Amino acid sequence: MKSENQKPYSNPYLAGAMLGIVLLASFLFLGAGLGASSGIARIGAFISGFIAPNHTISSEYFGAWGDQPLRYYLVYMLIGVFLGGLSSAVIAQRLKKLVIEKGNAVSSKTRLIFTLIGGLLVGFASRLAGGCTSGQALTGGALLLSGSLIFLICVFAGGYAAAYFVRRQWDD
Amino acid sequence: MIKTFYGLDMLNSGSAFFISLFIGFFFGLTLERAGFGSSRRLSGIFYFKDMTVLKVMFSALIIAMIGLSFFIGLGLIDPSTDIYFMKTYYGAYIVAGLIFGVGFVMSGWCPGTAAVGMASGKLDAVVFLIGTIIGSIFFNELFSIIKPLYTWGQSSQQNFGQEGLAFVYNNLGMTKPVFAFLFTLIAVSCFWGAEYIEKIKSPAKQNGVYLNTPFLRAFSLILIISAGSLFLFQDTESTKKQITGTQEMISNHSEKALLSSVALAADHVEPEELADLLYNKDPQVIAIDVRPAKEFNFFHIRGAFNVELPDLIQFVKKHKDKRMIVLYSNGMTHPAQARDSLARIGFKNVYLLTDGLNGFIERCLKPVSLRKEPLPQAMTHRINMWRDYFYKPESASTGLLTKENGNFSDISSLLPGFLDTNWLALHLEKN
């Protein structure tokens, strides 16, 4: 599946340094850090509002976002993330046509079911924490917020605890 | 001094959307270049096979921390007004972190990286994002049940006038530079440890290649020196101005009564109460901004008078028949000291604003859409009403008394940012 001319990934430390500078720019221009899960949740609110408008606007959590949940800066940031990722993948010739990444030991179906459940948990947990690895762990970590660092530690605690049970996904 | 979109309360304006899109673009670009468009690579950290996640995330975190500390240390940005901080809810975050971790390792994705994965054509990333959207909708549907969990374990710390805003160096009893330095040392040790683990665990060509290279040594050294140089900055939060000239007089008003009113918090006015009183233009209520004229002219609560501490007694004397005189500053220290001093002299109608101007903005003026806690409809309505009122430019007739200090200057010509929204709307459209 690997393309012949696919370029190697960046030096992780330099990529990290660049990400740090992007985060710093976000602090200095926007006054808020990076975020991804809020944008996704607002798409959820939009869909929910499309299906059941009255129910959504009167619900306590989504209702506070008003009838135009997509008018929010993190929705635009999420669009930017997609476009940036796309540009980089095209330049580095890493763009694939709908492949499923997995080890040979599991079927595509198993892998996608695991992914869907994982997505559900992450979507729910991101709302409970008011952010994900970007908005809570990375951004809050750089601000040295107690809650963000506790969240970061617990993400890895949960991940390492569950890793053994889902390891077959990556076995070849 | 940098004014951010958050500080100007314009995070949901067209120009902020454009900047967000731009920043997001580079965010996505960097994630893809780091290899985070691949779930195999992301999940590698949980099996100690590929520690890229740790290297990239920890480098980014440390560099942004040091960079921002420099900007704050040099006085280029005011964190108390211009940076958005999330509050700390220990219980909620511990539960959320554990669930998130399980979801992360099951899918091999997190929200930001999955957006990049989708852009790289990964079907599992698309499925993950659908799951995340459904998970968010579930959260909304279950919100009435999980509400107590959502705000469980709020930190008792208070910073910048915001309750529950907690910094980890305060928990550990360290100063910020000390913690930042130690944190950087931990990061550098993790980098070396990660290279070592990769080398022994998975001796493929592309793993652990930076171990003991001149590059990693130089990178480590640069981080440590930069973090160490943060010690050069004085702790800006501790350099508070002294109150000058407030004469202390002993009166028959007993200290005991004063202290008990402090204990009962009978000397406080809550921001919401003040907002309502000013909104209704209660003639028996006066708000006094005790900050320097420069800060007052930049932004103040609509209808407030600017009286600096030395002139306060004179001013309060003139209004001793009013029902309520409310003092405020950015925080609470100066108004509290001034109120106690005035109470000693015998003025019993003086109060201070709980959480100061910062609290007033946070509790009454922060847009509903930016709040962590969802609010009942009635409160949303009140906030929108206050925002309409307090962000309107003042007519010349209010705040006239500021001229008494001789410091009154035309606000809109000084800085068009905060008050004159019409001006902004006009000029933004031109761009």
Mean pLDDT of chain B: 84
* Mean pLDDT value of chain A: 93
**With helices defined by DSSP (H or I, 4 residues minimum), what is the helix count of chain B?**
20
Strand content of chain A: under 5%
Brief account:
Chain A is mainly alpha-helical.
Provide an overview of this structure.
Chain A is an all-alpha fold and about 170 residues long. Chain A has two domains: about 1-95, no CATH class; about 100-170, no CATH class. Helix content of chain A is about 65%, strand content about 0%. Chain A has eight helices and no strands. Chain A has helices at about 10-30, 35-50, 55-60, 60-65, 75-90, 110-130, 135-140, 145-165. Chain A starts with 11 loop residues before the first helix and ends in a 9-residue tail after the last helix. The mean pLDDT of chain A is about 95. Chain B is mainly alpha-helical and about 425 residues long. Chain B folds into two domains: about 15-90 and about 155-240, no CATH class; about 255-430, Oxidized Rhodanese, domain 1 (3-Layer(aba) Sandwich). Helices cover about 55% and strands about 5% of the residues of chain B. Chain B has 20 helices and seven strands. Chain B has helices at about 15-35, 40-45, 50-75, 80, 90-105, 110-120, 125-140, 145-150, 170, 175-200, 215-230, 255-265, 270-280, 295-300, 310-320, 335-345, 355-365, 375-390, 410-415, 420-430; strands at about 160, 160-165, 270, 285-290, 305, 325-330, 350-355. In chain B, strand 4 (about 285-290), helix 14 (about 295-300) and strand 5 form a beta-alpha-beta unit. The chains are: A mainly alpha (about 170), B mainly alpha (about 425).
